[in-house]
Amino acid sequence: MYLNKYLEGKAYFVGEIITLADIHIWGYLQTTFEVGFDEGFRKAIPNLTAWFVRISQVQEVKDRFGAVQMAQKAMKPFIKKTAAVENPKANAAE
User: For the CA atoms of 49, 47, 5, 33, what is the dihedral angle to 10 degrees?
Assistant: First the structure.
């Protein structure tokens, strides 16, 4: 993952202190870490995970967004396959 590679050896996205860039990217990733990135996936992205935890522990972030509960198990997709998705050639013939 590109963000994991980018954060290698860095504490924050821009410079040595937290910036609006960190808050903005953190906001986009919050739900993903809470429901999609289970422990196994997080191990594969250690730099991004460490950064996410670091931002999550900032008191102002906690005050605004609450405590983050990391996903224990990734959420399964909930979209049911339709007949058109399961057998597109059969539906094209109709």
Answer: 0
φ, ψ at 56 (rounded to 5°): -60, -25
* DSSP code, position 8: T
Tokens 């993952």 -> residue? 1
What tens digit of pLDDT does each residue of 45-63 get?
Answer: 999 999 999 999 999 999 9
Q: Are 52 and 75 in contact (CB under 8 A)?
A: no
The fold for domain 2-73 equals Glutathione S-transferase Yfyf (Class Pi); Chain A, domain 2 (1.20.1050)
User: Where do the domains of the chain lie?
Assistant: 2-73
Written as six digits, the tokens of 44 are 């594969």
How far apart, in whole angstroms, are the C-alpha atoms of residue 94 and residue 85?
A: 14
Q: Read off the pTM.
A: 0.77
